[in-house]
Amino acid sequence: MLPMPEHDIDDLDTLRRRIHEFAQARAWDRYHTPKNLAMALSVEAAELLEPFQWLTPEESRELGAEQHEAVRQEIADVLIYLTRLADVLEIDLLEAAADKLALNARKYPVDKAYGNALKHSCPPGDSDFSE
Amino acid sequence: MLPMPEHDIDDLDTLRRRIHEFAQARAWDRYHTPKNLAMALSVEAAELLEPFQWLTPEESRELGAEQHEAVRQEIADVLIYLTRLADVLEIDLLEAAADKLALNARKYPVDKAYGNALKHSCPPGDSDFSE
Amino acid sequence: MLPMPEHDIDDLDTLRRRIHEFAQARAWDRYHTPKNLAMALSVEAAELLEPFQWLTPEESRELGAEQHEAVRQEIADVLIYLTRLADVLEIDLLEAAADKLALNARKYPVDKAYGNALKHSCPPGDSDFSE
Amino acid sequence: MLPMPEHDIDDLDTLRRRIHEFAQARAWDRYHTPKNLAMALSVEAAELLEPFQWLTPEESRELGAEQHEAVRQEIADVLIYLTRLADVLEIDLLEAAADKLALNARKYPVDKAYGNALKHSCPPGDSDFSE
């Protein structure tokens, strides 16, 4: 028997369409308001946090196989909900990320931010990659 | 003057490399333990939640221009941290998402899950897209 | 045999001491850095969110017995971690809350905030009860 | 002039009533569905996480005055929303916490959990203080 390809999702747009079909086939549109999708995404982001909560930073770099797989599944869940939310709001993920990186490059120029991810003169709420 | 192209990030792998370069140029590797990246991602996911917290589900479908842009930036932040975390853990985002969708199709077959995103016989902790 | 009282935790300070003893007895101090405790609290807050994610606002007011009990346990978890974190940081919970309510009363005077929990002229990041 | 007492909130029940009055005076009941309150709480829990995200565990034990005050305000926000949510759901906070501690003592007996906050034979989703 020929080996089956694992999957054929080669880019974000294909992922977007597959998730859309998945939700449509189950008539889940009514649950997928942006508000609910943002909630679900944030629940998954916390599930992604949980395996790390009692680990030291170094331990977090050396996850065992079981933990690595659990984290991999939670990362997948976050991407799935993020893609769905962006789809429902008609936001292009890569374009949004590219624009944000460009903005961050201006907010955190190398000469100011070298070796220092901590907030300098910004109000509370800023973190290094974002505003 | 010729219009500048917005950006040239056409796929997730290019995004991954740009974020890697961004962090390297600022010597931020020491901050980017998986634990810290998971924390930062979860902070951004909550920032994404905030514009929706007092809106009704219907209002959440009709964001004004300013709110839509704020949400777009938070979506970008989540994708940036997710991509960075996956990079540090050597996880392929699209492959992980494809595997998870396949798993979900088995856990939530159309005949059981049609019109019903709520948990049926699963223990607390399950949501519709994920385990 | 006389029925044992359910518990004898009548105030926050007693709760604080019981949690301290619980952690001490298990030699868990080394895990309980403020950073880790904040992470754990945020994981529990998301577990508290999860039962609500696909419910309409009205449905969320009418939880079934099983869901109500699940929510009750997650509320307990959040309080336990919050109390522990405040203890480790030597913060008095009621005093902090009272000060914050006083601050909120000034930021959201009744004449401005009546019937409107949405942000008016505040920068992103503000919600109604907090800054 | 005699110094005014900072506040007169000496117990959780008084805090509960003050928050209720605060929301009533502003006609905010319609926003305070359990779903929205759980969302707001989870947003505040992430704001509490943010000051810690790039700190080492040791640094997190030695916050500067400004950071300590920021954390104190976020802790207050979490308590305020938790108290409000419990009030709306008619859940007694201390009773719920006491019951949960008793449950945890059974799930994490000292002889098994001594020096080890990590999950032993529990399914993913368990953390040390909670189920």
Structural overview:
Four copies of one chain form a homotetramer. The first copy, chain A, has about 130 residues and is mainly α. Chain A has two domains: about 10-90, MazG-like (Helix Hairpins, Orthogonal Bundle), CATH 1.10.287; about 90-130, no CATH class. Chain A is about 60% helix and about 0% strand. Chain A has six helices and no strands. Chain A has helices spanning about 10-25, 35-50, 55-60, 65-90, 95-105, 110-115. The radius of gyration of chain A is 18 Å and the shape is globular. The relative contact order of chain A is 0.10. Mean pLDDT of chain A is about 85; it is low at about 120-130. Chains in contact: A-B, A-C, A-D, B-C, B-D, C-D. At the C-D interface, helix 1, helix 2, helix 3, helix 4 and helix 5 of C face helix 1, helix 2, helix 3, helix 4 and helix 5 of D.
Topology record:
The structure is a homotetramer of 131-residue chains.
Chain A: H1 12-25, H2 34-49, H3 57-60, H4 65-88, H5 93-107, H6 110-113
Helix pairs in contact in A: 1-4, 2-4
